[in-house]
Specification:
By secondary structure, the chain is an alpha+beta fold. It has 3 helices and 10 strands, in the order H-E-E-E-E-E-E-E-H-E-E-E-H.
Length: 174
């Protein structure tokens, strides 16, 4: 755990009353000693797509921004409020690569810690194996700088920037 970025280390003032009386209540919550407000640190949901080409190579994106800028990733992103994981998967793959998912199947889920803007976010990455209508219209956009298809092997994990994506690929390779 990145303790310096953990919400317990970052949030010292109560978001409700503004008093500097915000203390750790449990491993996943903080409580204000003045007004009693409790803030829970729950996991946000994210999705990731495993897409392969006809050669059996896996599609990896290159991250355009921090965290892990310039490193490999899987296409995907955060689920918006009120959105299903499946809708987020379809939206994210289209936004990032201009690809249209024609079918998908659930692979697995992986816990992750994601530091952004000096704050640690816990995420649950839901992973889907996807078939797309065509790979010919692929265009990197949004937070993707580039993409590459690589043979599925343990070697490709070295260039991946996020621990949960490394864990996803390790499980997929098995």
């Amino acid at each position: 755990m990145n303790s310096q970025f953990h919400p317990h280390s970052v949030f010292n003032y109560c978001p409700s009353c503004g008093q500097q009386s915000f203390e750790k209540d449990s491993f996943k919550s903080q409580k204000c000693l003045v007004c009693g407000f409790v803030l829970y640190t729950n996991a946000s949901t994210a999705v990731a797509a495993i897409i392969t080409n006809r050669k059996g190579e896996i599609l990896l994106t290159k991250r355009a921004f921090e965290p892990a800028q310039g490193m490999f990733d899987l296409p995907g992103g955060f689920v918006d409020p009120g959105e299903t994981a499946e809708k987020a998967l379809i939206r994210e793959v289209h936004e990032e690569l201009n690809l249209i998912i024609e079918s998908y199947s659930y692979f697995s889920s992986f816990p992750n810690e994601y530091v952004y803007g000096g704050l640690l976010y816990y995420t649950l990455d839901m992973v889907f194996e996807c078939k797309v209508t065509s790979l010919e219209q692929i265009i990197p956009a949004d937070d993707v700088a580039d993409f590459v298809f690589l043979p599925i092997s343990k070697d490709l994990i070295e260039g991946v920037g996020l621990m949960s994506i490394k864990n996803i690929l390790r499980a997929y390779i098995k």
